[in-house]
Amino acid sequence: MAGAAGPRGHCVMIDSLIFHGWPALLNVDLHCHSNASDGLLPAAELAHRAAQNHVDILALTDHDDISGLPAARAVADEVGMRFVNGVEISIEWGGLQIHVLGLAFAEADAALNAGLLSIRSGRIGRAQRMASALENIGIEGTFEGAMRHAENPHLISRSHFARYLVEIGVCKDVRSVFESYIVPGRPGYVEHQWATLAEALDWIHGAGGIAAVAHPGRYKLSRPELHDFLDEFKSLGGQAIEVVSGSHSAANIALFGRLANEYGFLASCGSDFHGPGESYIDIGQLAPLPAGLTPVWEAF
Ligand code: AMP
Ligand code: MN
Ligand code: MN
Ligand code: MN
Q: Closest ligand to 31 CA?
């Protein structure tokens, strides 16, 4: 018997369509942030919100940090929601900051933890350089100000600077701060050494996880550069690509769905929810994956 579609992003199971042990229509969100990185909500609260929004499978994917996983998993266990370990690793490729998701890895893996620690340890120095750059254009005290917004000081990020600049009235919202001050070419942006693509994939694979390109529609890559990146990702053993993302347009979804099949990548989907009022869409409110793709959760 076929179930009717529920509210946006939530689908009722169709009993007759079961593949690889997963019901065919699931509400899956494999990309979101807690205040262990630059999200606004504590990990437990985020997991509760996901459950309230009828998420069936959730991955918490904080930037370069996995300290929120136990609290989110505890809530997921309590409410009967499937939980998958996740992380969003910051890498540098071709002069750009790119994000690679690690999914379903063993969180105790020593090399993964050491690798994430090595990326985190550069963030404080980078924040000090950002603060100096902003001071040069007359905006003072931003290191301390941004730090007050960072629940996890080791994960000080541009988002925390943006929130502080909104707090002191420099811009009306976070997005405007990014556009005017802290993206490449703007006065508060500083270069930084992140992980390499090969390192990030080694850490994820060494811990038994699946690597997925996060929000590929957001990078300033020409079409040939995008292919170069995906070729390299594939040759290093990368398995998946985010097709549906909170920041993807319908055209992005169509393009990356096509590329997923062309490259033989599994298809992932995630809201990239950071908090109420600061995100493209809420957790668990994604459009479904286009037909004809292999969902990444088949590999979990
Ligand atoms: P960081 O890891 O410190 O470089 O910060 C990157 C984070 O900043 C991303 O994960 C997003 O949460 C946020 N971000 C990047 N670009 C923008 C933008 N244009 N508008 C709003 N937030 C952004
Ligand atoms: Mn972020
Ligand atoms: Mn990202
Ligand atoms: Mn993200």
A: 4
Residues 210/239, Cβ–Cβ less than 8 Å: yes
Ligand 1 atom at minimal distance to the Cα of residue 179: 19
Ligand 1 pocket check for 123: Cβ under 6 Å: no
Please work out whether the CB of residue 300 comes within 6 Å of at least one atom of ligand 1: no
Per-position DSSP letters for 236-300, written without gaps between them = TT--EEEEEETT--HHHHHHHHHHHHHHTPEEEEE--B-STTSSSS-TT-PPPPPTT--BGGGG-
CATH topology for 12-110+196-299?
A: TIM Barrel (3.20.20)
Please tell me the distance between residue 18's alpha carbon and the centre of ligand 3 in angstroms.
Answer: 32
Indicate the CATH number of 123-181 among 3.10.20.30, 3.40.140.10, 2.130.10.10, 1.10.150.650: 1.10.150.650
- Any idea what the Cα angle at residue 222 is, between residues 218 and 227, rounded to 5°? 90
Atom index in ligand 1 nearest the CA of residue 88 equals 10
Residue 23 pLDDT: 53
What tens digit of pLDDT does each residue of 191-230 get? 999 999 999 999 999 999 999 999 999 999 999 999 999 9
The closest residue, in CA terms, to atom 19 on ligand 1 is 178
Name the burial class of residue 226, with classes exposed (0-12), middle (13-18) and buried (19+) by CB atoms within 10 angstroms of its CB: middle
Q: Report residue 25's pLDDT band, with 50, 70 and 90 as the boundaries.
A: confident
Location of each CATH 3.20.20.140 domain in the chain: 12-110+196-299
What's the pLDDT score for residue 1?
A: 30
Instruction: Identify which ligand lies nearest to the alpha carbon of 173.
Output: 1
Could you give the CA distance from residue 160 to residue 17 in angstroms, rounded to a whole number? 44
Q: What is the mean pLDDT of the chain?
A: 93
Q: Fill in the amino acid letter for 168.
A: I
